Amino acid sequence: MSVFSRIREDISAARAHDPAARSAAEVFFVYSGLHAVWWHRVSHALWRRGMRFVPRAISQVSRFCSGIEIHPGATIGRRLFIDHGMGVVIGETAVIGDDVLIYHGVTLGGTGHDRGKRHPTVGNRVIIGAGAKLLGDIEIQHDSAIGSNAVVVRSAPPWTTLTGIPAQGRPRRGAPIEQPDMADFYVI
User: Fold this and answer.
1) Transmembrane segments in this chain: where (predicted)?
2) Model-level pTM greater than 0.70?
3) Number of domains in the chain
4) SS3 of residue 95 by DSSP
């Protein structure tokens, strides 16, 4: 897929998620969440080629301009939309699927000084509410929703709504009839 096709796809995703988006031009020029994702793609490509300083420098310039910090080592899927992104932090080993919506103040962070995979994995079509914190090597599976200010420290099955501190899960509205046993993921 060409760079221009990806940009058009990102703009379409932003317009689909944000009813305040009046035009593609407005989204292209003033949506800092998209700018941060676009700069991340550049820094991530350099990171994968073994460079370290230049990608980190690019991510810091992007952070300064957008208020969104995405480590160049993070893996991000297609059509990620960061709405009102100020204060978003995405750690080095975080993995984000396709069609994810993240609001401001979200952290995908680690819990210590461990090496290896230490940040969350977020499935496709997940919504992460403002101020939510996802901490550690956990997996939030597809089609889940995380409430504002939730602190998530355990993995969650598909079609889960997570709320509270620490977050507790329950089946998400609109979920398919067959649900995995929530007891496998949470002590309820």
Assistant:
1) none
2) yes
3) 1
4) strand
